[in-house]
Amino acid sequence: MPGLAAKDVIDVQVSVADFEPFEPLRGAVEGLGYEWMPDNDDGRKRFFRLVSPDGARLVNLHVRRLGEFSEQAALLFRDYLRASPEPRRRYEKAKRALAGRDWPTVDHYADAKGDTIWSLIREADRWAWEVAWSAGPSDA
Question: Domains, the chain, ranges and CATH?
Fold first, then answer.
């Protein structure tokens, strides 16, 4: 998102009608060079990553079902932060504070952002009603 400090990894969401059958989906994504992460503990998505030849993570690919809460929440969160400078600044401030600490894994860092994210999602939900938000067309 322009104007928001972020890690040097791009997060991409792809929405699909269904995860099943999974093997054709998995094969297509892996054919693009992504690695499936079967140990993902979030059953609402299928998670892949793209890494460079030296092992640096480049892209996190979150595959979610079209219309499900987690898919819509991610889009709402994105759109709210794009439209709302003050909440975007608060989110960045929280991220910077957490990024300055040592974390055993990136998952620990992500969990630490949880309270901030859920607070912003509640705000975004109110904003969505005020502006009659809908997910709209793809960014692709």
Answer: 10-65 (3.30.720), 69-131 (no CATH)
Residue 119: exposed, middle, or buried by beta-carbon count in 10 A (0-12, 13-18, 19+)?
middle
Report the Cα–Cα distance between both ends of the chain, in Å, rounded: 14
Peptide bond into 21 cis (omega under 30): yes
Distance between CA atoms of 130 and 102, rounded to whole angstroms?
39
Stated pTM of the model: 0.85
Residue the block writes with tokens 């300055």: 100
- Smallest CA-to-CA distance from 89 within 132, 120, 135 is with 120
What's the CA gap between 60 and 63, in Å, rounded? 10
pLDDT tens column, 4-49: 767 778 889 999 999 999 999 999 999 999 999 998 888 899 999 9
The residues near 39 (Cβ < 8 Å, ≥ 6 apart) are none
Closest CA to 4 of 117, 89, 110, 73: 89
Q: Which value, in Å, is the radius of gyration of the alpha carbons in the chain? A: 16
